[in-house]
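Protocol step 4 of 6: structure prediction from sequence.
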Amino acid sequence: MRIPAHSVCTAIRDDIVTGVFARGSRLTEEQLARRYGVSRVPVREALRTLESEGFVTTRRHAGACVAEPTEQEAADLLEMRTLLEPLGAARAAQRHTEAHLKVLRGLVRLGQERARRGPGEDLGSLGGWFHETLAQACGSPALSALLTQLRHKTAWMYVAEEPARPVEAWAERGAIVDAVARGDAERARALTARHVERSLSGYRLRRTPGNAGGGAAVRTSQRRVNTASARN
């Protein structure tokens, strides 16, 4: 059974974002194939994709390495999100499906319930699922993919502080869904712009130690890739 490259790509990306692979560290095909229990072919394809996304860079005499973004590149990410997430919400107001609305409302309801109990570990995940679904509702695969990539890279470069008033944050998300449901693109855009601006104000740039020469330690335990999507 051939493991699809996108599954390997997701696994490597997740390990980069969570810091398993330090910035600047080498990524050899042999090492990655062994870690994920796959052949080198999907690893090679995955590294090409990750390079196009900006997570991986190719260095002369070193091969593939985890990218080392500058502070300016990190700042540009937040600016792009303030511009593109409101656009995605406006498009969602025009192109959403009832299935999207059902999921969005369910997430808002769950988020509000858990926010009232106090900050919890799953609130960040719920917020991520909300914005992922809102991006999917925009009806543009290209925009949705770009928004998802921006969120991955933001999580890689920044530490997000828990909102001081999580109930209010989820009330904002509820208002966005109401605007989307009514087809009010301009209100959805304005509400999302305000929400994103407030959320991103709590982001702090990750400070990582230097990694000259790519010699950072990498966890060596094998991690099998989820092969469910490869099965017929």
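Step 5 (inspection) to follow. The CA atoms of residues 28 and 64 lie 7 Å apart.
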